[in-house]
Amino acid sequence: MSYEEDNNIHWERLRNGDKQALFALYNNTYSHLLRFGLKICGSDELVKDCITQLFLQLWTRHQTLRPVTNVPAYLFTALKRQLLDQLAYQSKIHTAIHRMTDKEAESELSYEEIIIQVQQDEELKQRLQQALKALTPRQIELIRLKFFEGLSYEQIAAQTSQTVKTAYNTIYDAIKALRKMLK
């Protein structure tokens, strides 16, 4: 069976809710997607995150996915869109931070504004602590390793004796839960 036929079969099984087909498709196309993504963007972590997000979205939307004749081409296009969206988003954030920094340099905050900002920061910290308590101990550990210690997914997987895929999925689920609780 050819690479393309194999991926088409996995795609159809994925559309029917077969999680193993999702993993098989991921394993079949990951290295190709990674190489392709690195040509668009030099950030290894961003490309890996976008690939993971792509497959998580495929699973989330598997019931509404349409038949595809060329699965790799579909995945390359979807990854390219995701990377370009992320790069545009990062650019907007970078620009916004520069604007905020410029505005802060132009005008000093009043005493009242500083107190209000401190109170809002404290409230946000308390809400975040409450939300973190609702996560599982494993999710908390992986969030700490990824965002507070700055480890890559590969380092997290090695340190916690998990697969990289499990580390991605656990962190994704934790972030999704935190977003839901902090809204």
Automatic annotation (TrEMBL):
GO terms for molecular function: DNA binding; sigma factor activity. Residues 25-91 form the RNA polymerase sigma-70 region domain. One of its GO terms (biological process) is DNA-templated transcription initiation. It holds the Pfam family Sigma70_r2. SUPFAM superfamilies: Sigma2 domain of RNA polymerase sigma factors (SSF88946), Sigma3 and sigma4 domains of RNA polymerase sigma factors (SSF88659). The keyword Transcription regulation applies. It comes from the Bacteria. Keywords: Sigma factor, Transcription, Transcription regulation. Residues 126-178 form the RNA polymerase sigma factor 70 region 4 type domain. PANTHER family: RNA POLYMERASE ECF-TYPE SIGMA FACTO (PTHR43133), RNA POLYMERASE SIGMA-70 FACTOR ECF SUBFAMILY (PTHR43133:SF46). Belongs to the sigma-70 factor family. ECF subfamily. This is RNA polymerase sigma-70 factor, ECF subfamily. It comes from Chitinophaga ginsengisegetis.
